[in-house]
Amino acid sequence: MKAILSTLTLSLLAVPAFAVDTTQTYNSGILVLLFVGFCALLIVAQLVPAVLTLFGMTKAAVEGSRKTAAAKN
Description:
Layout: H1 2-14, H2 22-25, H3 30-72
């Protein structure tokens, strides 16, 4: 049991040694970041009307079901 515990402890202490230094792997410039930001802006600009439409359809469905329930009574 002690051997398993010590092996586990040593393996957990060695885990940070396998981390990658991101300062050397990421070397894109500001233009790449601006392009990604522009793409994110396009996605958000399309998402806003979609959410508003979904909200409107849900509201209309709820009102329709209330009218149907009131007509049955």
